[in-house]
Structure formats: structure tokens, C-alpha cells
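Quiz preparation item.
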């Protein structure tokens, strides 16, 4: 057992192997095997967050901005695992409220079926549509914070590509007490499509990072031979810093690589305004590590 930040971390709090579920015949998107690390990160962080914060806050809220259908099949195998929204429901200490968003109505309906089947006692709300147009709708489901009712949220942000997420959405959400775990599609999108994004008429990087100065900064970074994917992750982190989130550099992020060719894919980044969140994040990264989980 480890003590950390005044809390106890036991094998039961971390180090979980992901559960396997039966094929229920409903929509089950395929994901690469590297997605398992992402799932362990969100599951382990949600677990330590809900267990440690329940005595300090009156209401804990889990928000999944890009929730998907609830099950994922690992490519090239017959293994089906619960994905982020169902993992967040499968915790020893429940959140008081869950908010699941997705623009795909078919996936959201399948998610509802899966939630109702096994987690009917949890308080779940669904927001259908583009998250960037629906922050007011998300807000309407978050309990009102007051001096008598303290509300803390944890938000998982898992877009396919940069154009799915506008920085302004994160900025608006950050008006609440909220920690973020954000997948930055740095290599699988930004780096791969560099020539497209640096076109003067393309606003994707500006919309995704919220930075108006990224073009002039990129000219400098390029001279220092920085990869565009790494540059974009850094710009995103810097802009989170401007929202008073603690950002001390890329070492706080995990660059996740493909298992077959070891190619960089995306950065998993965590943002909180409190140091304790980073202690939890550091532990989560250690205990979600692939090697430990393959033992
Ligand atoms: C990478 S998947 C995330 C799946 C899920 N987090 C998981 O654990 O498997 C991205 C999801 O976001 C949805 N999506 C894409 N753009 C969106 C947007 N602008 N607003 C809301 N949902 C969006 C897609 O329908 C898809 O289900």
C-alpha cells in the first residue's frame, strides 16, 4: 500500500484490468489496442477522484463530452470492453451525477440502453448534439454550486479529431469547478495534416487551441525542428494555463503510441487548478501503465 497526498492507494483503488463484456449485438465501434491505456487512465482517475473527493464536496459530477456507445471492440480480437461512460459508472464510489454527450443519436441511444440495463439506479443525463453548441444544456444538468452545496466535476474529453472540439467550449465549462482529462489528437490529426492546417484560410488550430498567435509561434518552433503534433499539444497546454489551470509543460502529458509500429498518436493531458489533482494524475499514470497491467 502507498500513501500519497494524505490518501491511501491500495491495489483495489488502482491497477485494474479492464473488464470484458459479452457481445450484445448493439453498435460496438472498433478501437486500436492502444485505446486500452486511455480507458485505464480515465477509469483509474475517476476512481481516485470519486473516492477521495466524496467527503470534501457535496456533489461530484462526471461529464463525458464525446461519450460514444458504451462498448468498444479491440481491433483484431474478439475482446469487447466497456468504454469511458460505462467505466465511470463501474466505480466503488458513485458520482452523484453523470452527463453523457454525443452528436450521434444512434450511439447515444445504444448507450442509454446499456446504462438502463445495468446502472438504472445512477443519476444520468444525456445531451445529444455538437458539444460546442450545447454547453448551456450541459450546465442545466450540473447541480447549482452554492456556499451550502459544493459541486466538483471531472470532465473526460475524447474527440476523434481537432475540429470536433473548440477551445471556447473548454473555456466556458471552466467557469465551474472542473478538472479535465483531454485527448489531444496531436499526431493522429495535427501532425498528419500539417499542410492542410497551416493554410491561411484554415481556422482549425485556432479553434482547437484558442490561440490567435499560433502561426507566428509555429514559425519559431519549426526552426527549432519541433514536430507540429508536439507544438499543438504545447499551445493547448499554454492556453489552459491562461485559464488558471496548472500547466508545467509537456512532461505532464502522456504521448500514447501505437502498439504495432510504435508511432505517436495522441497526448493524454490532465488539467486541474489544484496541486492535489496532479498527485492523483501522477499515480494514475503509473498504475495505468501497460507493462504493469500485462503482468
Ligand atoms: C473517439 S469517440 C469517443 C468514444 C468514447 N469516449 C469511448 O470511450 O470510446 C468520439 C465520439 O464523439 C462523437 N462526436 C464527434 N464529434 C462530436 C461533437 N462535435 N460533439 C459531440 N460528439 C461528437 C462521435 O459520435 C463519437 O462517438
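Solution:
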Amino acid at each position: 500500500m502507498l500513501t500519497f497526498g494524505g490518501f491511501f492507494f491500495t491495489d483495489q483503488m488502482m491497477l485494474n484490468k479492464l473488464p470484458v463484456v459479452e457481445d450484445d449485438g448493439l453498435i460496438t465501434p472498433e478501437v486500436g489496442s492502444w485505446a486500452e491505456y486511455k480507458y485505464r487512465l480515465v477509469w483509474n482517475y475517476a476512481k481516485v477522484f470519486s473516492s477521495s473527493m466524496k467527503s470534501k464536496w457535496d456533489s461530484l459530477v462526471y461529464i463525458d463530452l464525446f461519450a460514444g456507445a458504451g462498448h468498444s471492440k479491440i481491433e483484431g480480437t474478439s475482446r469487447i470492453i466497456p468504454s469511458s461512460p460505462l467505466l465511470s459508472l463501474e466505480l466503488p464510489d458513485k458520482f452523484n451525477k453523470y452527463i453523457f454527450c454525443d452528436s450521434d443519436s444512434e450511439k447515444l441511444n445504444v448507450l442509454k440502453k446499456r446504462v438502463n440495463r445495468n446502472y438504472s439506479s445512477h443519476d444520468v443525463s444525456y445531451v445529444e448534439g455538437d458539444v460546442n453548441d450545447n454547453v448551456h444544456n450541459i450546465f442545466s444538468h450540473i447541480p447549482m454550486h452554492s456556499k451550502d452545496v459544493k459541486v466538483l466535476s471531472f470532465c473526460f474529453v475524447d474527440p476523434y479529431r481537432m475540429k470536433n472540439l473548440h477551445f471556447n467550449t473548454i473555456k466556458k465549462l471552466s467557469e465551474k469547478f472542473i478538472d479535465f482529462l483531454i485527448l489531444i489528437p496531436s499526431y493522429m490529426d495535427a501532425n498528419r495534416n500539417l499542410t492542410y492546417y497551416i493554410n491561411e484560410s484554415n481556422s482549425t488550430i485556432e479553434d482547437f487551441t484558442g490561440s490567435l498567435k499560433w502561426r507566428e509561434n509555429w514559425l519559431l518552433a519549426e526552426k527549432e525542428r519541433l514536430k507540429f503534433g508536439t507544438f499543438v499539444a504545447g499551445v493547448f497546454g499554454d492556453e489552459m494555463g491562461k485559464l488558471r489551470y496548472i500547466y508545467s509543460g509537456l512532461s505532464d502529458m502522456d504521448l500514447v503510441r501505437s502498439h504495432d509500429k510504435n508511432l505517436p498518436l495522441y497526448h493524454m493531458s490532465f488539467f486541474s487548478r489544484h496541486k492535489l489533482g496532479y498527485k492523483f494524475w501522477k499515480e494514475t499514470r503509473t498504475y495505468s501503465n501497460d507493462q504493469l497491467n500485462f503482468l
